[in-house]
Amino acid sequence: MSPRSARLARLSRSVTFSACHRLHSKSLSDEENLKLFGKCNNPNGHGHNYKVVVTVRGEIDPVSGMVMNLTDLKEYMQKAIMEPLDHKNLDKDVPYFSEVVSTTENVAVFIWDNLQRLLPPGILHKVEVHETEQNVVVYKGEETTVK
Predict the structure, then answer these.
(1) Domain count, the chain
(2) Coil, helix or strand at residue 17
(3) Is 46 annotated as a binding residue?
(4) How many Å apart are CA 16 and CA 58, to the nearest integer?
(5) SS3 of residue 26 by DSSP
(6) CATH number of the domain encompassing residue 50
(7) What confidence score (pLDDT) does residue 147 get?
(8) For residue 3, what pLDDT is reported?
(9) d(Cα 147, Cα 136) in Å, to the nearest integer?
């Protein structure tokens, strides 16, 4: 059998969590918040059943045949996503969102940052957060410079 070059693959796993939030920016007046966020600015909040798809990328290990052990990925996702977010009021129960508007974009960044602390360096490829069937945010860790 001839030696093969290393093969790259992407591995994805999904979880679903339920949480509520209120879209509201402290930088805006109540009127501006209502105009910007509409019914999502309801003072009592509203809820979602979020679906999160995490994709890791790496070489397929020639011995195990895996990019990563799915059991390990499941545990990392439990710690990074389910424990801090499931059945929580994002704005009141998650300290990160006390200063950051709990948009789906920012939920994706929060999850990315949590996973980055747990996963082997360089393996995290993408975080997809499905707020609804129609609304999906994809975050790949990109940052932009401050202008």
Answers:
(1) 1
(2) strand
(3) yes
(4) 24
(5) coil
(6) 3.30.479.10
(7) 64
(8) 57
(9) 27
Task: Kindly report the pTM of this predicted structure.
Answer: 0.93
Task: Write the pLDDT tens digit of every residue in 100-140.
Answer: 999 999 999 999 999 999 999 999 999 999 999 999 999 99
Domain limits at 75? 15-139
**Residue 81: partners with Cβ closer than 8 Å, 6 or more residues away:** 15, 17, 52, 54, 111, 114, 115
- Strand partners for 58: 9
24 is in an annotated binding site: no
Q: Is 108 exposed, middle or buried (0-12, 13-18, 19+ CB in 10 A)?
A: buried
CA atoms of 115 and 27, how far apart (whole Å): 29
Active site residues: 40, 87, 131
Least confident of 3-7, 50-54, 96-100: 3-7
8, part of any domain: no
Confirm or deny that 48 is annotated as ligand binding. Answer: yes
Closest C-alpha among 8, 2, 23, 7 to residue 135? 23
- Angstrom CA distances, 31 to 52, 97, 102, stand at 32, 21, 18
Q: List Cβ<8 Å contacts ≥24 apart for 133-139.
A: 135/104, 137/104, 137/105, 137/107, 137/108, 138/108, 139/105, 139/108, 139/109, 139/111, 139/112
